[in-house]
Amino acid sequence: YIEDMSDVVSVCRKLCACKEKSLAGHDQRVNSISWNCAGTTLASGSADSTIKLWQVDKSGGCREIKELKGHTRSVERTAWHPKDATQLVSVSDDKTLRFWDAKAGRCIKTIQTSGGLINLAFSPNGSQIVSGDKTDVLTLFDARKMAIVDRINFHDFIGTEVNEFGWDKSGSYLFLSTGCAVQGKSTIQIVDTRNNKFDRVYTLPATTATCYCIAFDPLGRYFALGSGDALVTLWDSKELVTVASLEQSDSSISAMCFSNSGNVLAYGSNDKRIFLENVETCEPLGVIDASAVDQVTCIAWNPKQNIVAYCGEELKGTRGGFVRVVGEHF
Predict the structure, then answer these.
(1) Cα separations in angstroms, 251 against 229, 248, 296, 299, 314
(2) Residue ranges of the Anaphase-promoting complex subunit 4-like WD40 domain (predicted)?
């Protein structure tokens, strides 16, 4: 963790200066990466229809420990149970959501949905899961029963696409980032899921460009939005007001995450860089070189160590798909 704010600058400098590790093994591009809650295992989902599990230690040791097979088309997203370091969930363009026992390396439940799935999120206590498909149909799952409990097409309600989504720290409200529809602005749709169904609560105007990604501070203080106009906005998660605008990037924001302590926001874009910002002061803390990819599409900060993993659209002519990691002690 970066517990002391005086350590923030030092840690970020180390992350930006260290040599990255490339984890090879996928036959096609990597779409998604996620750490388990113990910080011991990194999952990568690929267009080659497989999921790989990697062990990455703080000194830079990296090795593949398992390959999970079962999906028949591209694996678009993976997500770990927030309390159970062995339970993994994945969604795919094959229209299924799968529950995995990562320790045993086997699928324990497959649920068929109505469309090709492209997004996924776990509630903070692990009791609910939401998936999103290409037609903006969101499906709510009871994670304990491994069953569908509600489904809704949000495009019919808001007239534009739903992009990324995630729960606030309480686990009561699901926040959806969207395209532009209402008076030429993108919105944040806030949905109450406490009764195991989608209850729309509030529409919050966001920016004049499509919001592609959303991330929540693990302490519950803030959430961040990344949009197509290269702007990152930081919001107070209780007051629902913008507290800062971050403008380091020159390109559309395509991925973001907070550090394990919530003190740093990392965000990536089409310009092959990952920017690090001090959440409290909004000061730039450095840039991680991501020129190994054409566009950063996913960033994941280890929950226990200062290790950052990312993946993206591979450069033209690159064979296979890679996960890239940097760490303060690499």
Answers:
(1) 7, 9, 11, 16, 17
(2) 246-302
Write the CA distances from 97 to 23, 80, 168, 176, 291, integer angstroms. Answer: 25, 13, 23, 20, 32
CA distance 54 to 43: 6
- Residues 284 and 277 sit within 8 Å (Cβ to Cβ): yes
Q: Would you kindly state where each structural domain of the chain is located, as residue ranges?
A: 23-153+302-329, 156-289
Fold of 156-289: Methylamine Dehydrogenase; Chain H (2.130.10)
Distance separating alpha carbons of residues 131 and 316, to the nearest angstrom: 30
Long-range contacts of 40-43 (CB under 8 A, 24+ apart): 40/85, 41/65, 41/85, 41/102, 42/300, 42/309, 42/323, 42/325, 43/78, 43/80, 43/88, 43/90, 43/102
Cα(198)–Cα(190) distance, integer angstroms: 10
Name the helix (H) or strand (E) containing 275: strand 273-278
The neighbour count for residue 49, using CB atoms within 10 Å, is 19
1-48 pLDDT per residue, tens: 555 666 888 999 999 999 999 999 999 999 999 999 999 999 999 999
Tally of residues, the chain: 330
Residue among 209, 187, 189, 191 nearest 254 (CA):
209
pTM above 0.85, yes or no: yes
